[in-house]
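Open question from group meeting: does this chain pack into something compact, or does most of it stay loose? Before anyone orders reagents, we agreed to write out a predicted structure and look at it together. Recording both the input and the output here so the notebook holds the full record.
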Amino acid sequence: MAGISGAAQCSPAWLAHSSWLEKPLSLGANDPKSTYDQLPHVTWCPTGPLTQLPLHAAGIYDEGSGPRIYNCVVSSYTPSLSALTRSIDAVAKQRHVNPSVLVVTQPNTPGMPPLPGTTVEGERLRQVLSQAQIAHSAFNGKQASTTAVRAALDDHPWLHLACHGSQDITDPMKSAFALYDGPLSLTDLMATTANNAELAFLSACQTAVGDEKIPEESMHLAAGMLAVGYKGVIATMWSIRDDDAPLVVEAYYKKLLGLRASGTLGKGETGAAYALHDATKRLREEVGEKEFARWAPFVHFGV
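Structure tokens returned:
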């Protein structure tokens, strides 16, 4: 396993040989009373080379009816057990209310490749939030300056960032999101994030990728967002297609808001893991299961 990295981590070859991981995880998922929305929830806390692998996508894919992890459990990740415990304890003390959402989209960051899909993504998300009567603020393009976003963070427990991201392995707190006039670093976020910060969606490329040279250390933007105070984070393990993000984002927030409104979430739960599980299912059905590189990069960290 230590020799598998890069593109190989989302290839059918690796996934086909991951049955060692999938077989022990029935966890009652074969119960005839169980449904896709009632699957057990597993939080992965991998170490070493396993931190580079999409454990949530393990399965036997050379057989049409072979077992797949996603049919057995809903997957989350955590950089450490202490980080998970902190998040669970913090969420357990919060009320399940629909908080306000800060939506930041950056289709044309100066000096970086354009991300035209972020405009569509932002429009779909704002429509979902408006229909559900969820308070939100949106900053797009030039409006999304570091000053404006930092000023708005304290009023929005949920954060959605659709922009480029960069990771600084030597100094993780300098890892940042590219806004119109400069980087918004984890240090900036730590100083301005709301005290009741709960969920963040990082719709940026490779926000859950650590350093292959130091696999034991979870030094990526997703782990950093947990460190600055968010309890749950959606991120990506490798680059995503610009036109896939809007579909996943729309499906995720619709499911998440539905779960919150249903009153079925337990103490210490946010609903984010189940919402992402549903969203990636929709993308997989849209593009086909064989398109591993498109549906498998989306991951949930925390609670």
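Observations to bring back to the group:
Residues 90-272+290-302 form a domain with the Rossmann fold fold (CATH 3.40.50.1460).
Residues 12 and 290 are 8 Å apart (CA to CA).
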